[in-house]
Design goal:
This protein is mainly α and about 100 residues long. It has 5 helices and no strands. The longest helix has 16 residues. The model has no long low-confidence stretch (mean pLDDT about 85).
Length: about 100
C-alpha cells in the first residue's frame, strides 16, 4: 500500500471519495495517487495536513514520503470518545 493509501485508510479511515472531498480533488485523482500515476501538489498535501489538525489527529508531514507506523496514536477526540464509552458501559453494567 502506498503512502497516500496508508494515510487515507489507516490515519483518516476514509474511502477514496470522502478523502477526495477533503482534499478538493476527484476520487479518480486519489486513485491515480494510490496507483502512483500522479502525486498530490503541495497545496493538496497542505489540505490533508490541515484536515488532520482540524480533527485533532496527530500528524507528521514525513508520512507523505514514508508510511506511518502501524498502531498510530489515538487522537484526543478518539481518546475522549473511548473514555466516554467505557464510562457509559461501566455505569450501565456492560462488560462488568
Amino acid at each position: 500500500m502506498n503512502q497516500i493509501a496508508v494515510i487515507r485508510v489507516s490515519i483518516f479511515r476514509l474511502n477514496q471519495a470522502a478523502f477526495a472531498g477533503i482534499v478538493g480533488v476527484s476520487q479518480s485523482t486519489v486513485s491515480r495517487w494510490e496507483r502512483e500515476e500522479a502525486s498530490p501538489t503541495h497545496a493538496e498535501m497542505r489540505r490533508v495536513r490541515d484536515y488532520a489538525a482540524a480533527q485533532a489527529i496527530p500528524w507528521n508531514d514525513a508520512w507523505f514520503f514514508e508510511s506511518p507506523a502501524v498502531g498510530r496514536q489515538l487522537s484526543r477526540r478518539e481518546r475522549t470518545v473511548r473514555a466516554n464509552r467505557r464510562e457509559r458501559d461501566l455505569t450501565h453494567g456492560v462488560g462488568a
